[in-house]
């Protein structure tokens, strides 16, 4: 039908149908006219509403969701839709989810420095917020030089509690990220384990002193083994896939400041909107809010005499 629509102004419907019939495509003029005058089906009417809504949801989430997460997001937004319907719309509209690429090594271990023990042993789980943080560095090439990025993630909720973008990868950038985490989560966090790889920034004396100020204990994985800091590596991976090289990117990164501003928006989305499969497809902020709400209701009431 679309072919006839495109050519009918120049050739007419009947001649086009004759040519199509000779080519083995049997379409009578009456069939074409019936199809054009027939009212749209219920499915077509639903698609006309659902298609733009799904497109908007996909774009609002950095154009990174595949069929499963877009389906979850649509259900959360109030759309009564099945996963197969979402997949069909995505195929028709050319929407695809992102895939993470390979990790690039940024750690520069200080082989002469003393290292704290590995207190995590690849068990990246926690029963409550502020029990285990994981940290790592990555980098982003820009026209003005390399932007280095540090993230601090709470293992309980996958919340990014601190981050920093800088034109260098000295210890001070990690300390700045800790300071952000400190003010967002509390000045004193006794019992907190802060885990990282064996990079020189994380084995420095200043790093250990800053953690001691907030009551935290450092933990460091072995040198050259990415599995010892796998959770932080995962965050770096989807940061690169979703923002730095993601489909919503408008072009090359020009400056470190451009990366910093974009990272600010991505971190806010990551914490408040991004659906995390590990959390049951809800955002970290919602997961923590539910945890604290449940904790309050579980506390026994004290009767005042």
TrEMBL record:
Quote the PROSITE patterns the UniProt record gives. INTEGRASE
What biological process terms from GO does the record include?
Answer: DNA integration
Q: Which Gene3D superfamilies match?
A: Ribonuclease H-like superfamily/Ribonuclease H
Give one GO term, molecular function aspect. Answer: nucleic acid binding
Q: Where is the Integrase catalytic domain?
A: 125-291
Q: Which domain of life is it from?
A: Bacteria
Signal sequence segment: none
The protein's role, per its UniProt record: Involved in the transposition of the insertion sequence.
Q: Can you name this protein?
A: Integrase catalytic domain-containing protein
- State the organism of origin: Mycobacterium attenuatum
């Amino acid at each position: 039908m679309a072919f006839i629509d495109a050519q009918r102004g120049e050739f007419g419907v009947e001649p086009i149908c004759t040519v199509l019939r000779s080519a083995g495509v049997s379409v009578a003029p009456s069939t074409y006219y019936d199809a054009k005058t027939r009212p749209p089906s219920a499915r077509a009417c639903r698609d006309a509403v659902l298609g733009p809504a799904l497109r908007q949801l996909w774009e609002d989430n950095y154009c990174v969701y595949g069929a499963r997460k877009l389906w979850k997001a649509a259900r959360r937004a109030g759309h009564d839709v099945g996963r197969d319907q979402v997949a069909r719309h995505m195929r028709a509209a050319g929407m695809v989810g992102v895939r993470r690429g390979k990790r690039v090594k940024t750690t520069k271990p200080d082989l002469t420095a003393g290292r704290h023990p590995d207190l995590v042993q690849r068990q990246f789980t926690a029963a409550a917020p502020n029990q285990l943080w994981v940290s790592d560095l990555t980098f982003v090439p820009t026209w003005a030089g390399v932007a280095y990025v540090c993230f601090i993630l709470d293992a309980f909720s996958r919340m990014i509690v601190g981050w920093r973008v800088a034109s260098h990868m000295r210890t001070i950038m990690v300390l700045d990220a800790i300071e952000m985490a400190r003010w967002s989560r509390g000045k004193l966090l006794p019992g907190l384990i802060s885990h990282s790889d064996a990079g020189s920034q994380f084995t420095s004396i200043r790093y250990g002193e800053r953690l001691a100020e907030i009551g935290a204990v450092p933990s460091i994985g072995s040198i050259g083994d990415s599995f010892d800091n796998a959770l932080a590596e995962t965050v770096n991976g989807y940061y690169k896939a979703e923002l730095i090289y993601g489909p919503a990117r408008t072009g090359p990164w020009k400056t470190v400041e451009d990366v910093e501003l974009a990272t600010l928006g991505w971190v806010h989305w990551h914490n408040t909107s991004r659906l995390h499969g590990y959390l049951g497809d809800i955002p970290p902020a919602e997961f923590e809010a539910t945890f604290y709400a449940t904790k309050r209701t579980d506390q026994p009431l004290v009767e005042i005499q």
